[in-house]
Amino acid sequence: MIRILFVCLGNICRSPTAQGVFEHLVSERGLAKAITCASAGIIGTHTGELPDPRTRQHAKLRGYDLRSQARQFHAPEDFSTFDLVLGMDDANLRDLRALDPREEYRSKIRKFTDFCVALRTSEVPDPYYGGPEGFELVLDIVEDASLGLLQHLQSQR
Ligand code: 4NP
C-alpha cells in the first residue's frame, strides 16, 4: 500500500480538495487497494471541521463530495506513516521541514505542484481570503497535479 498525505495550512481548503480529487481518481482507475491518502494542516485551528463551505461547493460542481474532517499534522508519526508528505506551497514546505529537525524524512517532503503535467505553477495558492476564482484555480491545479502524481506512482511500481 502506498500512503500519501496532503498538507496545507488549515486543512479546510486546499489539502481536503487534494485528498478528495486524488481519491476519486485512484478509485476511478481501480487502484483503491494499492494507494491511500489523507490530509492534515500545519495549524490545528479548524480541527474536526468539514472543508470550508466554498471549497465544498466548488468541488461539488465538478463531482467531488468532500467530507474529510480537519486535523493537525503530527510529527513524527505522520512522517513515518506516510510515504509522501505533499505540501501545497513554499510556506508549507518550510513548516514541514522545520518539524523534521534531524532531516530524517526530508525525501518524503515534496511540493504537490512538482507533479503538475499541463499547468506551470509552483504553488497551490491559498484561496481562503479571496473570491470564487481562487477556489476554481485550486481545483484546476489539484486535478492536474493528481494526474501527474498517479503517473509518477505507477512508473515506480
Ligand atoms: P487552507 O486555507 O490552508 O487551504 O486550508 C486556509 C484555511 C484557514 C486558514 C488559513 C488558510 N486560517 O488561517 O484559518
Secondary-structure blueprint:
Elements lengths: L1 E7 L5 H15 L6 E7 L11 H9 L15 H5 L2 E4 L2 H9 L10 E3 L20 H24 L2
Parallel strand pairs: 1-2, 1-3, 3-4
Helix pairs in contact: 1-5, 2-5
How would you characterize this protein structure?
There is one protein chain. With 157 residues, this protein is α/β, with parallel strands linked by helices. The chain contains five helices and four strands; from the N terminus they run E-H-E-H-H-E-H-E-H. Strands 2-1-3-4 form a four-stranded parallel sheet. Helix 4 links the parallel strand 3 (84-87) and strand 4 (109-111). Helix 1 packs across helix 5 (132-155) and helix 2 (53-61) packs across helix 5. The protein is globular, with a radius of gyration of 14 Å. The model has no long low-confidence stretch (mean pLDDT 98). The structure holds 4-nitrophenyl phosphate.
